[in-house]
Amino acid sequence: MVRYMKLYWHFFAAQVKVMTEYWVDFIIGFMSVFFIQFTSVYFIKVVFDHIDVLNGWTFYEILFIYGIASTGRSIHQIFFDNLWLVGRDYIRTGNFDRLLIRPLNPLFHLIADKVQQDGVGNLVLGTILLGISMNHLAFDWGFWDIVLLIVMVISSGLIYSGINLFFVTFSFWMVDSFPLMQTAFNVSQFARYPLTIYSKPIRIILTWVVPYGFTSFYPATLFTGHKNYTTLALITPAVAAIICVIAYGFWIIGLRAYTSTGN
Amino acid sequence: MIEVKDLSKDYIILKRKPGLSGAIRSLFIREKEIKQAVDHISFEIKPGEVVGYIGPNGAGKSTTIKMLCGILTPSHGEIRVNGVVPYQNRKQNAINIGAVYGQRTQLFWDIPVRESYELLRHIYEIPKNDFEARMKHFTEYLNLGPILDIPVRQLSLGQKMRCELAASFLHNPAVVFLDEPTIGLDVAVKENIRKFIREMNHLYGTTVILTTHDMEDIEQLCQRIIIIDNGSILYDGDLVAVKERFGHQRTIHFEMPQTDHFKLPASLESTVDVAEITESRVSLLFSSRDIKGAEVIAIMMAEYEVNDLTIKDTSIETIVKEIYERGI
Ligand SMILES: Nc1ncnc2c1ncn2[C@@H]1O[C@H](COP(=O)(O)OP(=O)(O)OP(=O)(O)O)[C@@H](O)[C@H]1O
Ligand SMILES: [Mg+2]
Question: Residue ranges of the ABC transporter domain (chain B) (predicted)?
Answer without folding.
Answer: 2-255
